[in-house]
């Protein structure tokens, strides 16, 4: 009888921990998904709504480091007139420690449904005033091997 109680308690605690972790991961991924949804709509305000102010996107390309303010990136996305754009991430890996999270994921960026470039995104998030916000964006954009 005691063994059954122990097994039930172990299963309940395990489910409780796994359910909390899944909920936390969903909370972290929510602003990331909103960012990519806004990018696809070319919605500057939607992009900026999930970002901490005054951050930069950092891109490593061909042994060079490129930085761009998020405001300039949002302006460029909103002004794009070359057909529908989209960025899709795949198999994101999440690491969360209290109020800091990192999402590491391969991505493809398309224009008019055709792959323009690809790479890996590294998205850093911070939980500020009980809300997850993107506090850093990095990638290693490339045109080959997509």
Automatic annotation (TrEMBL):
Matching InterPro entries: FrzH/put_lumazine-bd, NTF2-like_dom_sf
One matching Pfam family: Lumazine_bd_2
Keywords: Signal
Signal sequence coordinates: 1-21
Electron transport keyword on record: no
Annotated TM spans: none
Protein name, entry field: Nuclear transport factor 2 family protein
Lineage, highest ranks first: Bacteria, Pseudomonadati, Pseudomonadota, Gammaproteobacteria, Lysobacterales
């Amino acid at each position: 009888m005691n063994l059954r109680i122990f097994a039930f308690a172990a299963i309940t605690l395990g489910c409780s921990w796994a359910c909390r972790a899944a909920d936390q991961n969903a909370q972290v991924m929510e602003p990331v998904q909103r960012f990519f949804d806004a990018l696809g709509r070319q919605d500057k305000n939607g992009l900026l709504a999930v970002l901490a102010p005054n951050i930069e996107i950092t891109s490593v390309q061909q042994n060079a480091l490129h930085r761009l303010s998020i405001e300039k990136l949002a302006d460029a996305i909103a002004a794009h007139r070359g057909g529908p754009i989209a960025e899709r991430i795949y198999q994101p890996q999440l690491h969360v420690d209290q109020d800091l999270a990192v999402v590491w994921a391969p991505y493809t960026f398309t224009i008019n449904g055709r792959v323009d470039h690809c790479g890996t995104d590294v998205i850093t998030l911070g939980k500020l005033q009980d809300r997850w916000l993107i506090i850093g964006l990095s990638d290693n954009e490339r045109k080959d091997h997509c």
